[in-house]
């Protein structure tokens, strides 16, 4: 399909989808309407003789090309693994074990954040694994599912984007390679870490909230309800399952551990660690060359086989129950998979059909601002685009080839910080957009309503975004002084959190 330069109309589909999702509290129909509005604009722009059939035909033709079957298979098999582990009693046994050792609500929150930081290989894996492991523990201590979903989401993409050994580092490296501006793409990625203010402030905010409970906005109300016994859980297939009494903590630890080990080994294998090219015979090089989606499918299948070999021969569950449970787990992931397909499609509408990149490029190159405002402007544009499209990889894939030459032309000293601003702004949308895949998976992993997760997390994400923007302003003014700009971001973050928490206290006192 030939692209159509729709100008400012190219941002209408995601805006329509986001507004409808927030108004109707229903994301699937909102995404579908957003997609149809975009393909209608495309049909009009391409002068289709039959606008109705042109819109429908374009929608489903694009959808068929945008589906990442590997990711769908990974999510589906991970759903089967999660369900069978729970059915075997592994999750309950782990929860009982953790409850005996985690003695407070604060400890349960810190443990959730710490586990999220530990699983840095891939954000999809992070979202679903942390939710499965920590949900029984946080439920015990009256932590709202919305709070757990926020912690999961904040320790997924923000951690992966500053982890040198991750699928995200590989994706960024592939975009950097296309610019030809750096001798070492890996070194360039490493150099952006101190300037990735959004990722750093997100992680800091999680642990500040865990220690000091400075909640505000909708999250504060969700936490107040949780303290009264309503954690905001959703009915899922696992709520009606028959749980084996024979399960032990090892029935959870071993399959999840196998998943982690297999994920690393499969990433290395797909990246050529054991291949013929010696250039990829190191851990970092093979990970940078890996195919994350394929490797995750292999590793999830391997973990499912390990679970089968652990549960069925020991008669923890029968062969029939294991297979039936696997199917139920796959069904459990169907809503998330549908939303993923629709999210990929609306991103394709914007990028491939309506030429959103050209519209963004015109904003960047014709802004008429001086070089010192470049990092802040880049962050704002990347944040806007990623929030609208719900994709970080798509956003930095679009912007890196544009931003690097622009920064080199305006001020070479600002290339690294502008690159970091691109990555930081891209993560913003992946972190909190209603149509982001990790936002969807975080709510699924926590057993939280997707719309509630978006509504409660968004104010926190905006606080981090404002703090990051302040840091990039200072970075531009000081020619990328890392200490001054990072300090500015953290001071702004803490100040905003304290002010908003105190305003929440005042509002509560007035209502009392």
Please give the oligomerization state of what you see. Answer: single chain
Q: What is the 3D shape? A: globular
Summarize the helix and strand pattern as letters.
Answer: HHHHHHHHHHHHHHHHHHHHHHHHH
Instruction: Provide the β-strand percentage band.
Output: under 5%
Can you give the mean pLDDT?
Answer: 83
Number of DSSP helical runs: 25
Helix share of residues?
over 70%
Based on secondary structure, the structural category is mainly alpha
Largest sheet: none
User: Termini, distance in Å?
Assistant: 60 Å
Radius of gyration: 23 Å
How many distinct beta strands? 0
Which regions are unreliable across 5 or more consecutive residues at pLDDT < 50?
Answer: none
Please provide a written account of the structure:
This protein has 512 residues and is an all-alpha fold. It is built from 25 helices and no strands. The chain has helices at residues 12-24, 27-45, 51-66, 69-87, 90-101, 105-118, 123-140, 145-154, 157-160, 167-179, 185-192, 197-212, 217-227, 250-270, 283-288, 292-311, 319-332, 334-353, 356-365, 374-389, 392-410, 415-432, 437-446, 450-477, 482-511. The longest helix has 30 residues, at 482-511. It is globular, with a radius of gyration of 23 Å.
């Amino acid at each position: 399909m030939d692209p159509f330069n729709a100008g400012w109309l190219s941002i209408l589909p995601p805006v329509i989808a986001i507004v409808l999702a927030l108004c109707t509290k229903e994301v699937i129909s909102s995404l579908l309407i957003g997609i149809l509005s975009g393909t209608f604009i495309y049909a009009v722009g391409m002068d289709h003789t039959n606008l109705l059939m042109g819109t429908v035909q374009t929608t489903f033709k694009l959808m068929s090309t945008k589906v990442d079957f590997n990711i769908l298979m990974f999510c589906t098999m991970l759903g089967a693994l999660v369900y069978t582990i729970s059915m075997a009693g592994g999750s309950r046994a782990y929860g009982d074990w953790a409850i005996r050792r985690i003695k407070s609500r604060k400890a349960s929150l810190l443990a959730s954040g710490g586990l999220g930081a530990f699983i840095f290989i891939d954000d999809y894996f992070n979202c679903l694994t942390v939710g499965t492991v920590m949900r029984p523990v946080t439920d015990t201590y009256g932590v709202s599912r919305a709070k757990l979903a926020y912690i999961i989401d904040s320790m997924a993409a923000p951690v992966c984007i500053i982890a040198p050994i991750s699928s995200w580092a590989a994706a960024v490296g592939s975009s950097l390679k296309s610019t030809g501006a750096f001798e070492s793409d890996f070194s360039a990625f490493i150099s952006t870490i101190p300037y990735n203010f959004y990722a750093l402030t997100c992680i800091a905010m999680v642990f500040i909230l865990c220690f000091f409970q400075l909640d505000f906005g909708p999250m504060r109300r969700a936490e107040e309800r949780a303290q009264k016994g309503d954690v905001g859980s959703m009915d899922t297939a696992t709520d009606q399952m028959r749980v084996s009494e024979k399960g032990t903590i090892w029935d959870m630890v071993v399959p999840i551990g196998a998943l982690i080990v297999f994920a690393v080994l499969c990433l290395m294998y797909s990246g050529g660690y054991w291949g013929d090219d010696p250039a990829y015979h190191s851990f970092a090089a093979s990970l940078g060359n890996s195919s994350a989606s394929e490797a995750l499918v292999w590793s999830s299948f391997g973990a499912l086989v390990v679970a089968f070999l652990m549960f069925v021969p020991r008669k923890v569950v029968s062969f029939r129950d294991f297979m039936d449970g696997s199917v139920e787990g796959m069904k459990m992931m169907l809503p998330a998979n549908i939303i993923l397909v629709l999210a990929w499609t609306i991103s394709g509408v914007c990028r491939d059909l309506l030429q959103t990149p050209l519209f963004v490029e015109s904003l960047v190159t014709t802004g008429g601002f001086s070089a010192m405002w470049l990092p802040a402007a880049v962050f704002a544009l990347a944040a806007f685009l990623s929030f609208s499209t719900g994709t970080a990889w798509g956003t930095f894939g679009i912007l890196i080839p544009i931003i690097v030459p622009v920064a080199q032309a305006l001020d070479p000293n600002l290339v690294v910080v502008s690159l970091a601003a691109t990555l930081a702004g891209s993560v913003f949308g992946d972190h909190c957009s209603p149509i982001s895949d990790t936002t969807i998976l975080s709510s699924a992993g926590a057993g939280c309503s997707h719309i509630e997760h978006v509504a409660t997390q968004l104010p926190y994400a905006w606080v981090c975004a404002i703090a990051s923007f302040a840091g990039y302003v200072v970075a531009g003014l000081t020619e990328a002084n890392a200490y001054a700009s990072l300090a500015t971001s953290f001071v702004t973050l803490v100040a905003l959190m304290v002010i908003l928490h105190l305003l929440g206290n005042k509002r509560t006192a007035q209502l009392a």
